[in-house]
Design a protein that fits this description.
This protein has helices spanning 8-13, 16-29, 56-63, 75-80, 102-110, 152-158, 192-206, 216-219, 227-247, 257-269, 273-289, and strands spanning 46-47, 71-74, 84-85, 92-99, 119-128, 132-133, 165-166, 173-175, 180-182. It is α/β, with parallel strands linked by helices. The chain has two domains: 8-145, no CATH class; 152-289, no CATH class. Helix 2 (16-29) packs antiparallel against helix 10 (257-269) and helix 7 (192-206) crosses helix 9 (227-247). The chain is globular and about 60 Å long.
Length: 303
């Protein structure tokens, strides 16, 4: 049974970036693209007690586990409600960024040329509802109300400073210089879900415009296959999945071996590549959904 709780020293000693990066690489090696899974099946992963949704890389990691109900709980919370983990079950690592303690910051300052990071990556473990027992009935999925999901059109209409959406050409793209999205007409797609998924992808790109989130990768993605291009494409892909989950739609695309190999190469060369993309994708989705976060991601933890 894996019942670890957050530990500042362990959290900094473990190569958390490496561990999580390897998990995603493992999925890609199996031919599964983690950020294109149909996440709406078990709804967006959230904490069972607080109802708070997991964000960024944690959303992807927990959705990858493919549980019927994406309700999770910490070991500490289990103790508070007199429940426990089933024998043999292992916890799932989730991460958060926290302010660097003063003593660690002083140590960094003594190293010549050392960068002074403002935050450090820490971790703790959560368990899915199916991994636990003796949970009071009021917390179980059958006893919880299911919130009505917004339509794709309502999400687009509510997007602040939404760029013009045109249907002039038979291709989907975002024009960063003129700040507009072009889409093929809806009847060109096999399903409405496919149309809106493609539109979400382009709208995520548009959040990088200087008048919105001013994302560096959208301004520098001119070189096809370059670092900025690859980062921006992954941001758009993950952001699309966040929006699909929010709207309750699914649109899966067949990807070639070369496509998967390309992502494998990127992740193997930079273990922080997917972390950056997942965080930027969350900010893009928040912008489109007009979500104001109550607290900084640097302090995001239920413990």
């Amino acid at each position: 049974m894996d019942t670890q709780t957050p530990n500042a020293k362990a959290g900094t000693q473990k190569d958390v970036y490496g561990i999580i990066n390897e998990r995603i690489i493992e999925q890609l090696n199996k031919g599964t693209i983690p950020w294109q899974r149909p996440w709406n099946t078990g709804r967006i992963p959230r904490n069972m007690i607080t109802g708070r949704q997991y964000r960024g890389i944690n959303l992807m990691l927990l959705a990858m586990e493919d549980y019927e109900h994406n309700l999770f709980i910490t070991f500490q919370q289990l103790g508070e409600i007199k429940a426990k983990v089933k024998k043999g079950e292992k916890g799932h690592m989730v991460v958060y960024w926290n302010r660097k303690p003063k003593e660690e910051a002083l140590e960094a300052e003594t190293e010549p040329g050392a960068q002074k990071p403002k935050t450090v990556l820490r971790y703790y473990y959560v368990f899915n509802v199916t991994q636990c027992e003796n949970i009071p009935e009021k917390y179980l999925p059958a006893a919880r109300e299911t919130a009505e999901q917004p339509s794709c059109e309502s999400i687009i209409r509510a997007m602040p400073h939404c760029p013009p959406i045109r249907h002039k050409e038979q291709s989907a793209f975002y024009n960063v210089k003129e700040d507009f999205v072009n889409m093929p007409k809806k009847r060109s797609f096999k399903t409405d879900d496919a149309y809106y998924s493609t539109l979400f992808h382009e709208l995520v790109h548009s959040t990088g415009h200087e008048s919105r989130l001013n994302r560096k990768t959208i301004a520098e993605m001119a070189e096809f296959g370059g670092e900025a291009y690859s980062q921006e494409e992954l941001i758009a892909e993950i952001g699309t999945c966040y929006l699909q989950s929010h709207a309750g739609i699914t649109s899966q695309f067949q990807q070639s071996a070369a496509y998967i190999y390309g992502w494998l190469r990127k992740l193997k060369n930079d273990k922080r590549f997917v972390f950056f993309a997942a965080s930027a994708a969350q900010k893009a989705a928040d912008f489109i959904l007009n979500v104001k976060t109550e607290q900084e991601e640097t302090e995001e933890t239920e413990e």
